[in-house]
Write the structure tokens for this entry.
Amino acid sequence: MYLTPKQKNILISSRLAAGSLLLVSLLPLPGQVLLFFRILVTLIAVLNTLAVYKRNGGLVVVFICVAVLFNPFFPVSATAPVWTLLNLLFGILLVLAWWRRW
């Protein structure tokens, strides 16, 4: 998929947004807010997967994992400590992907 430089910058910036949402979700928030965060994070992960699938195989795996784990339509069951760890891990990975411009 060809992206103009402006589209590429928006896509890379969306990684910061998704990572930030995952890190903010570590705070005690209402369920509706967390559901909204999951929808946004899944959408950003799917769009990033489609954009980088031919260029960066390792990053595609991260985005697919994020899309599968955080999708609100077929939720994955896990305990609160596991979700805390997943939010922290993938939040840091997405912020790092933004910072390193992967």
